[in-house]
Every structure is written in C-alpha cells, then in structure tokens.
Design a protein that fits this description.
Blueprint lengths: L1 E7 L3 H12 L4 E5 L11 E2 L4 E2 L2 E2 L3 H5 L7 H5 L1 H7 L3 H7 L4 E2 L6 E4 L5 E4 L1 E3 L4 E2 L10 E6 L7 H10 L4 E6 L16 H7 L3 H17 L3 E5 L8 H9 L4 E4 L6 H16 L3 E4 L3 E7 L2 E7 L7 E8 L10 E3 L2 E3 L39 E4 L2 E8 L9 H4 L2 H19 L2
Helix pairs in contact: 1-10, 1-12, 8-9
Length: 417
C-alpha cells in the first residue's frame, strides 16, 4: 500500500500531524500499537510551566530562552508564535474545546489537590488564574458512591490550604446500580456510559440537593461525564444551580480518552487510514531514504510512502527502550542523544532533574533523524521521541508534541510545492 506520508505512532503528536497533512490534501496513514500517553492526560496541555522549580507566568518568555538542542529552539520563537493561534481551531474541528492563553499560563487543579501551571485546558475543568485568589467561595466536593479513582480528602486539603471552606459529599443514582455488582466496574469510563439522557437529569438533581444542604457556591466533581463528546458535560452544567467544574481522575483519564477518540475520529473523517493494534518492526532504508516499513499484522505486505514521521513517544510509550547499559530506538535503531556512563543518566534523588528525561533520537533543526551518523532525508521525529527537553520539570510536553507535529506537517506540505 502506498501513501504520501506514514506516521508511526497514534498519540497526540501523530494525530495532530496526520490531521494537518490530510487538510493539505495528502494521503496519510497512522500505525498505532494501541493506547497512547494521551489516554492519561489530565485535561490540560502545557507549553512551558516551570523553570528551576518555580512556576512560570509567561510561557513564551521562557520558550525564547531554551538552550540549543531543545525542540523549541529548533522551531524558533517566530515559528512558534505563528503556529500557536492554529492550535485551538484544530482541536475545535475535532470537537475538543480548549481554553487558555498563549502568553499567560493559568493553573489547573490536579487529582491530588494541587495547582499546576497550564497552557490550554479542556472545557469546564477546574482552573484558576492564580491559586492565591480563587473565586469559588464555599466548595462542595462531590463524588460518586463507590468510585475509587477520586480522592475528595486530597481535594479538600488542597482547597483548605488555598483558604477555601469546603465540604465533601457522595451520592448515587439508580442508573449506576448495574456497575455496583463489582468494584472493578466503577471506573470513570464505565460511569460515563451511563450518565446520558435522563440520567443527566437525575445526576443534576442529586448535585443540586447537595448544593442546598451545604450552601455551596461552587461544585467540584470527578470527570466522569462525556466519554465520547462534550454534550453531556454541557447538559449537566446547565442543569446544576451553581458553577460546576470537573477534576480529572487517576488514570485512565476520561478527558484524555475523549481527546484521543475525537482526534482519531476527525483524522478518519478527513480520509486518513488509522491502523490500530499494529506494530512497525523494521523499514527498508537505503542511501539515506526510507522507502517502506513492515508491520506485525501486515507481514510481507510493506507500507510505502514518500515521507515518514516518527511519533512513538519516549520510554512510557516504548518509543525508546533501555537495558542496564544502553538506551536505543527499537524500530529503526536510530541514533540517540545518550552520552556517558549509566551512572550519569539519573539522579538517585527522585525529585531532582533526571538526565534520561531528555533522551531521544538525534535530529537536525528540521527534525530529520539520523542513523549511523547519516541523516535520513525523508523521515522526521516529533513529540517526546525527539528528545532534548524535560517534559516533567519544564511542564512542556503538550506544547512540544503539538507544535513539532504542526511544524513537520507544514514542512512536508511545503516541500512538495
């Protein structure tokens, strides 16, 4: 099978790149081994949130100062400023509403009751311009009886530390009785399948009862509504008498799964081929160009393309793998930016910067990869696998994934003109 471009990896960077290419008229395939890191997303994307352990207010100021080798440095601040206004519309086309500013971080409320800087957050998730001046008044923290992936005491403690009064309550509705036959069924994705139609009204009635009992000004509840689209989220909020905001749960994340499904559906609606549950194990590389790839499911049938994009993620998604003495890219054995002995790859103090977090395949300024010191002219890497940044310490993973994907897609399209 022949395509204009093939993307290896079906997470956020692969999907954003694929959607951008399809909109430009390309024939595109994505090969995805299964669940991506997007499934664990907490309802927000970060552009640049922290530096030297301190929160950053203006992310673009720090993006402009990143060291050489960082993906943002390869993109350049002018390109980044050009790409940023395109992000919200791209997600909106897929049915994902994002709120936030490109020039000023806001704060998202985490599942353990902490506030972390964020660039863009999904619709109606609990956010604030500053944790020092929360506008929520008295808060009712509401949980579903028997739901184990949400921790009201953590949420309440975080609100108390921020100076707010709050009360915790739980409730249930008849529509959820089926799930109570087993505690393993009481998961966010399963609950969300039942909170539709008339169940939304029953759900709202219970929340309104708790509002009356607690005299709450604001309600926070786990994100257990709207698995497939945002409509149940909007309907529930419309029927609750006080402002209602959602807090992401422990993985699997409902908001992350919804984003994955909406982006994938949009990709396929635009005509893309999404080959899920398959793994690329080799490629035909000659004279600095990749002509085709081979997957487990297709066997002897090769997938051919003019351009290839590697979007396999880092260690978490097996885009990189490690042995006691080696870090490597497992599909093509591409060159990686690992130097020095293993003892220098990490710090024994878990909370210090870990050098291995910056590992990835070596790329040039246009994200072309290298094998045995030679550039692969028709293959580029995007997102976490490109390396050169610390997504956890910088709070930059979402921005790197989205912006490198958009830039590489633009380069591929412009290179064809």
């Amino acid at each position: 099978m022949k395509y204009d471009s093939i993307i290896i990896g079906g997470g956020i960077s692969g999907l954003v790149c694929g959607i951008s290419l399809l909109k430009a008229g390309q024939k595109v395939a994505i090969v995805s081994s299964g669940q991506s890191a997007l499934h664990f997303n907490s309802g927000a994307f970060e552009l640049f949130g922290r530096k030297d352990g301190k929160d950053i207010s203006n992310p673009l100021e720090e993006v402009a100062r990143v060291p050489e080798g960082h993906p943002y440095a390869k993109l350049g601040i002018d390109i980044i400023k050009k790409l940023l206004p395109q992000v919200k519309p791209l997600f909106a086309e897929a049915g994902i509403t994002l709120v936030g500013s490109d020039t000023e971080n806001h704060y998202r409320f985490t599942p353990i009751g902490m506030f972390k800087p964020a660039w863009l957050s999904m619709l109606d998730y609990a956010t604030a311009s500053s944790p020092d001046n929360l506008p929520w008044g008295k808060v009712a923290v509401v949980n579903i009886t028997g739901f184990l992936d949400f921790y009201p005491d953590f949420i309440a403690r975080g609100l108390n530390l921020a100076g707010l009064e709050c009360e915790t309550r739980d409730f249930t509705i008849p529509e959820l009785d089926t799930l109570r036959k087993s505690s393993t069924e009481m998961r966010a994705t399963n609950i969300a399948r039942f909170i539709t139609g008339e169940a939304i009204r029953h759900f709202a009635e219970e929340v309104n009862r708790i509002i009356t009992e607690t005299n709450a000004d604001t309600v926070l509840m786990p994100a257990v509504v709207g698995l497939f689209d945002e409509e149940p989220v909007r309907l529930l909020r419309e029927q609750v008498t006080r402002p209602l905001y959602y807090v992401s749960t422990m993985p699997m994340s409902l908001c992350g799964m919804r984003a994955q499904m909406r982006l994938r559906n949009h990709f396929q609606h635009l005509g893309g081929s999404y080959l899920i549950g398959d793994t690329v194990y080799s490629g035909d590389l000659d004279a600095g160009r990749l002509s085709s790839i081979h997957t487990v499911n297709l066997g002897d049938m090769a997938l051919e393309a003019d351009r290839f994009v590697l979007a396999t993620g880092s260690f978490f998604s097996h885009g990189l793998e490690a042995t006691p003495n080696k870090v490597f890219e497992p599909v093509f054995n591409l060159d990686v930016n690992v130097e020095g002995p293993r003892s220098g790859w990490c710090d024994m103090d878990l909370y210090n910067r870990q050098r291995y977090m910056g590992f990835g395949v070596i790329t040039d300024d246009s994200f072309h990869v290298y094998k045995n010191g030679r550039r692969v002219d028709n293959m580029q890497a995007i997102g976490a696998v490109a390396g050169g940044h610390d997504a956890i310490k910088e709070e930059s993973g979402g921005g790197v994934a989205i912006l490198t994907a958009m830039k590489v897609a633009s380069d591929i399209v412009n290179g064809l003109k």
